[in-house]
Design goal:
This protein is an alpha/beta fold. Helices cover 47% and strands 9% of the residues.
C-alpha cells in the first residue's frame, strides 16, 4: 500500500547521497549492527525528530477518528486476527491450492528460498524478454532482495513509480517507513532532488507542483517498459487473485500497461477465500493512513484473456521465503507472520518516533521490523532491535490483527541470550543467531545471583557484608550507568533494620 508523501516539514535540507535513476548507484546503508550509533545521531537531530513527531501525531489522530468505537474496533480486529491465523494454520495447503489455481489461470509461479534465488528469477525473465527497463510499484519485498541494485548490475533499469520511492531512488536513499517511505525528506529536499535529477525541473518548493513534475517524468516510462513489477497485499487461494491496495494509481499502471507483470511477495500473504479480503481491507487503510478506503483496490486474476484490451500478456508470481518458514515452524514466533504491513505499530511507537526508520538498518523498521528482521537476516546482526522498545504495549494495542508484539520482543530477547540447549522451553529448531547475544559476564552474573539466592547461608552472608562494603561499589556498571546512577547497597539491610526495631521495642 502506498500513500501520499509527507514533505511539509520546514527546515534545512538533509545531506544527500549521490544516486541515479534505476538504482545504478549502490549506496551505503546503515546496518542493523549500527543501530545504537545511528539512533544516537537521530535523537540529536531536531529536524528529524520534529518531522517524525508531527507526522506520527497526524496519523494517530486520523486513525483514531475511524476507530473511535473501541468495541467495534476490537470486534473487527478479532475477525482480522482469525482470518490471518486461519490462513497460517493451513499455510502449506493454501500455498499448494494457490499455485494450482494460478497455473490454471496461466500465471507462472516461482518459489525463491533466498533473495539470490528471487533475483535470478527476475533476471531470467528480463533477459528472455530483452528488457532494459522495469517499472515497479511499491514493494517492500523487492527492497528486501535489493532488486533495483541487482538489476542495475546487469544493465537493467528498475524504476520506482511510487512517488515517495521515486524520490528516494533519485537521491540514493532508502525508505524510512513502510507506508510513507520519504517521510524523512522535506519539501526543500525534494525540490533539490528533482532540480538535480530531472531535466528541466524548476527549483520550487510548491508541493502540488513537485508532485506534477514527478508524475510527468514517470508517465512516459510506463509505455516504454516491457516489464511491470508489483508487490502483493493479499493472495487469495480460492480464486488465484492478487490484491493490491494503493493510492497513486501507479500500481495499476505497472500491472496493466507492460506486456509482462511480475509480482513478488512473501509466502505468508496468502489467505483462504476472497471474502476474507473484506475485514482485512476494512482494517488496513484505517490503520495505515487513516483513510476509510484507499483510492485504488486492484484485484488481479491472471493475465490478459482473449478479447480483453489491456492487462499483461504474461504474468509471474515470485513467492519468497527468506526466513519466513523459520518463523512459521515455531509456534512461539508464528504470530509474526500475521502482519498486513499497515505501519500502525510504527506510528504509535515512542522509540521509532524518536530515532526514525533509517536507524534500524533493516528493510522493515519499528516494532514489526524488530520481530521480523531476526528471521530474515539472523538474530546476531539484529541483536539490538528487540531491546529497542520501552515495552509500553502501544504497538500491540493498535495492531489490527492482534500480533502480540511486546510478547514477541521478549521471546526474541530470551532467544538472543539462550542457545537451544540452554532454553527453558527448547524450540524445535534454533533461530538463526540464537544465543549470539549471550555475554559471558552477564551469564556469570546471573549464575552468581542464582547461587546466592538459592542458599540461605550465602544470602545472609552477602546481606551482612554488602552494607558494610558499599563504599567499594564501582561507579561504572556497564550499560546501566550510561543513563542511570550506580546501584549501591543501602546503608543497612532490611534484616538489620528489623533487628534494630525489635531492640527498641524491648
Amino acid at each position: 500500500m502506498n500513500a501520499p508523501v509527507v514533505i511539509e516539514r520546514p527546515g534545512p535540507a538533509t545531506p544527500k547521497t549521490a544516486g541515479a535513476p534505476g538504482g545504478a548507484h549502490r549506496e551505503v546503508h546503515a546496518r542493523p549492527e549500527d543501530f545504537k550509533q545511528r539512533s544516537h545521531e537521530s535523537v540529536n537531530d531536531p529536524h528529524l525528530r520534529s518531522s517524525f513527531r508531527g507526522a506520527m501525531d497526524f496519523l494517530i489522530e486520523r486513525r483514531a477518528v475511524h476507530f473511535s468505537d473501541l468495541v467495534a474496533f476490537e470486534t473487527l480486529r478479532k475477525l482480522g486476527e482469525q482470518v490471518r491465523q486461519h490462513a497460517l494454520s493451513k499455510l502449506p495447503e493454501l500455498l499448494d491450492q494457490l499455485e494450482a489455481k494460478l497455473t490454471e489461470l496461466g500465471v507462472h509461479v516461482h518459489w525463491a528460498e533466498t533473495p539470490e534465488d528471487a533475483n535470478r528469477i527476475f533476471l531470467d525473465i528480463a533477459q528472455r524478454h530483452e528488457a532494459k527497463l522495469m517499472v515497479k510499484g511499491k514493494s517492500m519485498v523487492s527492497e528486501e532482495i535489493e532488486l533495483n541494485h541487482v538489476m542495475a548490475d546487469h544493465g537493467i533499469e528498475c524504476l520506482e513509480t511510487d512517488m515517495g520511492e521515486y524520490i528516494l531512488q533519485l537521491d540514493g536513499d532508502r525508505p524510512s517507513h513502510i507506508i510513507m517511505p520519504a517521510i524523512h525528506k522535506t519539501k526543500q529536499d525534494v525540490a533539490e532532488i528533482f532540480h538535480e535529477h530531472i531535466a528541466g525541473a524548476p527549483l520550487t518548493d510548491d508541493v502540488n507542483e513537485l508532485i506534477g513534475i514527478g508524475r510527468k517524468a514517470l508517465r512516459e516510462k510506463f509505455g516504454a517498459a516491457k516489464i511491470g513489477v508489483s508487490g502483493v497485499n493479499f493472495m487469495v487461494a480460492e480464486t488465484g487473485s492478487i490484491v493490491l491496495v494503493e493510492n497513486e494509481g501507479n500500481g495499476r499502471l505497472c500491472t496493466s500497461v507492460p506486456d509482462v507483470h511480475i509480482a513478488i511477495t512473501g509466502l505468508e500473504k496468502v489467505i483462504d477465500k476472497l471474502e476474507h479480503v473484506v475485514p482485512l481491507y476494512a482494517l488496513l487503510p484505517k490503520s495505515a493512513t487513516g483513510q476509510a478506503v484507499t483510492t485504488y483496490l486492484n484485484v488481479i486474476t491472471g493475465p490478459r484473456r482473449e478479447g480483453e484490451r489491456d492487462g499483461p500478456r504474461e504474468m509471474h508470481l515470485v513467492l519468497l521465503d527468506n526466513g519466513r518458514t523459520q518463523a512459521y515452524r515455531e509456534e512461539r514466533f508464528r504470530a509474526t507472520l500475521q502482519c498486513i504491513r499497515c505501519g500502525a505499530c510504527m506510528n504509535h511507537c515512542p522509540v521509532y518516533t524518536r530515532v526514525g526508520g533509517l536507524s534500524y538498518g533493516t528493510t522493515y523498521p519499528g516494532p514489526i521490523g524488530s520481530i521480523i528482521s531476526p528471521h530474515l537476516v539472523g538474530l546476531k546482526s539484529t541483536r539490538d532491535l528487540p531491546t529497542a522498545s520501552s515495552l509500553c504495549g502501544a504497538c500491540g494495542e493498535v495492531c489490527p490483527v492482534k500480533i502480540p508484539i511486546p510478547e514477541m520482543l521478549m521471546k526474541l530477547r530470551e532467544a538472543g541470550r539462550h542457545s537451544i540447549t540452554q532454553s527453558m522451553t527448547p524450540p524445535t529448531q534454533a533461530l538463526v543467531g540464537q544465543g549470539e547475544v549471550r555475554a559471558i559476564s552477564e551469564a556469570m552474573a546471573w549464575r552468581g545471583w542464582r547461587v546466592l539466592y538459592s542458599h540461605a547461608f550465602l544470602y545472609r552472608l552477602f546481606a551482612w557484608f554488602a552494607p558494610r562494603l558499599r563504599w567499594l561499589t564501582p561507579a561504572w556498571q556497564g550499560g546501566w550507568t550510561k543513563s542511570r546512577t550506580p546501584l549501591k547497597p543501602a546503608p543497612k539491610s532490611l534484616r538489620d533494620m528489623m533487628a534494630d526495631r525489635d531492640k527498641r521495642r524491648r
